[in-house]
Every structure is written in C-alpha cells, then in structure tokens.
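Appendix B.2, paired examples.
Example (i):
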Amino acid sequence: MTGKDKLKELFVSELPYEITEEELKQLFSTCGTVRSIFMLKDDRGNFKGIAFIKMATEKENREALNVLDGTKIQERFIKVAPTKPKNIASESVADPAGEQRSRRRRREPKGRKRMR
C-alpha cells in the first residue's frame, strides 16, 4: 500500500462462528470508535467467519490493523487486512484497442443446443 492510499475499511477473517456483533465492536473499540460492522452470512443466515469493519478515522483503521491482526479469539487467530479499492476491476481486462472484455468465457446453457 502506498502512502497516498486511504484505508477506509477493514476485512476481518478467520473469526469464530459464535462471535457476536457486540463482541466484535468491543474488540475493535480498543483502537477507536467503530462506525459500522457488516458480518457476512450465508443464505441460511449463518455467520461465515468474515466481517467488514469501518472505524471513525483512517488513523484508527491503521491502528486496528496493526494491533489486532493475529489476535487470538476463542482458540482462533483472526486476520485483519485492508480492503481493496473498488476502482480495480477484477473481472474485466482492458483490451489494447481500449475496449474491455470479460476474462471468463460464457458457458452455453444446458439443454438443447442452439444452431449457429
């Protein structure tokens, strides 16, 4: 990360599945004010062990990153990392002609084959 990149949000993984939002808030509030917590859940509503956390300032984000990465919670060592900037398009690649194309090939639908 270069010096001019802003650290706006933290990606937290390897969290225990039993942890609550309040416990996460208490943990991260040791580094400053927690603005928001988004805990990723599957389609059944079960927590997946991943969360996105926003602190009040960039300085608090950096402190949480430095202090809490590798912290042991309920027999698990959590990982805290900066989120990737949204302006990086991971699913498309620029063409030399200036156009964008998809990296993945589209699959043909199952069933009857279309005539070309």
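Example (ii):
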Amino acid sequence: MVHAVIFDMDGLLINSEPFWQQAEKEIFGSVDLQLTTAMCESMMGLRIDEVVEHWFNYQPWEGPNKDEIRERIVDRVIELIDEKGELMQGVEYAIDFFASRDLKMSIASSSNMRIITFVIEKFNLAQHFSIIHSA
C-alpha cells in the first residue's frame, strides 16, 4: 500500500535543465570558461557545488571564488525560471490525484534549496508538500 509520494523537481515539476545550461554557460563564460551543451549535460544531476568544483579543477579562474560563482548561477537559474518557467504537463493533475487520496507528498531534489523554494512559491505548491529536501 502506498502511503506517500516523493517528487523530484528538475524534469518532473519543471523542466529546468535549459535554464541550468544557460546560466552555467553565461556565468562560467564570465570567467573565460566556455562550456558547450555537451559539457553542461555531462554535469546533469550533480549539485551545483559539485559542478563548480569540477569546472574549477578543469580550468581554474581568477576573480570570483567558487562560492560566488555558485551563487551567481543559482541567482541566474531563479531569474530564468521566473521569466520562462512553467510547470510540466500533468503536474497539477498528479498533485490533485495524490491529494484526493490523502497521500503525503514531498520533494527531494539535488537542486539548491533556494531554487526549490522559489519554484514552490512561484507555482503556489507549498501547501501540497509536507517535506522539502535538497541534497
């Protein structure tokens, strides 16, 4: 018997991958690290701190430290979600379906908590999720 449902965020609630790629290309480009789409895709599913660490080890940069780069990327992803983000098709139906069966729902995501919080606030989803967890 099912007692609870766990949602991922990226790729399930919202298709954020294009926003991550754009933000990473822009922000890493600002420190002269030119990423291709394939390079961005190779990091998909990793936490942003892991991505920044990987690219710094690949090509160290001068200027902003790793924490600043990480925050700039997160800020840019949030901006892009705010400008262009939409819930994935079927999300509202799935939430309503599980809610009508009194199932507890949660979000578990490798995304930064600021992004998760922004998405659930932007789309007015907070009341549906009893637990929200970031890697």
